[in-house]
Amino acid sequence: MAKSIDAAHSDTSFFGDVCQFFDHAAQFTSHPEGLLDQIRSCNSVYRFRFPIRRGNGFEVIDAWRVEHSHHKSPTKGGIRYSEMVNEDEVMALAALMTYKCAIVNVPFGGAKGGIKINPKEYTTAELETITRRYTVELIKKNFIGPAIDVPAPDYGSGEREMSWIADTYQTMNPGQLDALGCVTGKPLALHGIAGRKEATGRGVAISIRECVDIAEDMKKMGLTAGMSGKRVIVQGLGNVGYHTIKYLIEFGATVVGICEYEGAIYNSSGLNLDEVFTHRKMTGSILGFPGAQKEFKNSAEGLEQDCDILVPAALENQITISNVANIKAKIIAEAANGPTTPEAAEVLMNRGCIIIPDMYCNAGGVTVSYFEWLKNLSHVAFGRMDKRYEENANLNLVNMVEKTTGVTLDAVQRSLIIKGATELELVNSGLEDTMIRSYHEIRDVQMANPKIDGLRTAAFVSSIDKVAISYMNMGIWP
Ligand code: NAD
Q: Pairing with 34, which of 141, 185, 195, 266 sits 20 to 30 Å away (CA)?
């Protein structure tokens, strides 16, 4: 059966790269080509333009929303604000969302949005106009809604933009009880969820911890098991990069390098995250940071410095055939979407490196977005109903044990045992469990078939199977 046009692969296409990874993995499944083609292709691509007033004139803004797969509803995916955004990129990111949701068992189809602007060049008022108009265009075409398609933050967007989207949607849908579930990544005051902002970075750090804790896998690369002493370089000090560094340090790793678009810094004994962050905020650059031993005006050189783990957390196409020979890391944790091209990935695999694939590595964000959506639909914060009940039950138990044994706990011990879970604790627990389970699910798929050449292929095999089962159960496929 012929492939659909949008599934045609090309050397320079990000969507083509995703399809290339997909096709490589599909050979390890037994689904008919027609079904694979349905899974691989983007179902709906909405490209639109709208004008905004700017200065004394007008400017036309290019924008997209792509819904890759409707095997589950709603579809879900972030909105990227970048002057580099294009249709191919949004399609690729939407496809990755489908596979990502399947891997972490989040019941959504994949989607993605893009607005072709450099947000740094617009005033807050202009950004609000653009975001609200973008939302209205989605509403007009039924491309947004708590049961239809639920956007989230991505590169260049955050809580502020999500608030504007929620408010616009609510205004246009008066009386819709679940309206706030139309978007996730909202601030807490607007029914967001505790822990969402840091979720992606936290998930990335957990994925790395799971990987390095397996002694057998580390031994093959000449590394010891455990996070302690692992030297890490992170590219991107945005939402994902910042939180990845924060939790990696908390888990015992040493962050030796940080790369931003203006340059990179390196210190073999470790960099202090808060000091680097403050320095950049004060001076507008990470260069000139007093705690760095070396600095590079060409940021890409930072990726090539000595380390055990490299975490690209900025944009796609950062590890390519032109720089892969100089990459020293043995583990690549893809916090960004699509940072490694298929050709570079092949070189790294042949070298015996482990690539923790984007579709799993950065899935913490969508996992906690799922929790936020559930919270919005249930209209109650997690823990609100049972926290006090749990504490009272624990207190009764402690009192009984103390009475029976004659042992008295001190105040710290008592409060540790008695304490009921807060929303943040429940979210972090759900996130950690999801990341740990999914890592082992993927690794088990890899271990079960020696021909499966890495975690990415295993992740694709696992998600293709899950999406295929959904389609077959729906009766779309006989
Ligand atoms: P962000 O806008 O908060 O941060 C990105 C950072 O990368 C910025 O500080 C930017 O200056 C820096 N950067 C840009 N170009 C660079 C370059 N060439 N070299 C070094 N640094 C560069 O974006 P984010 O939300 O942190 O997203 C980063 C990546 O993670 C994207 O690929 C995104 O799709 C992916 N991701 C984000 C989330 C999320 O929850 N935010 C979830 C999943 C995946």
A: 141
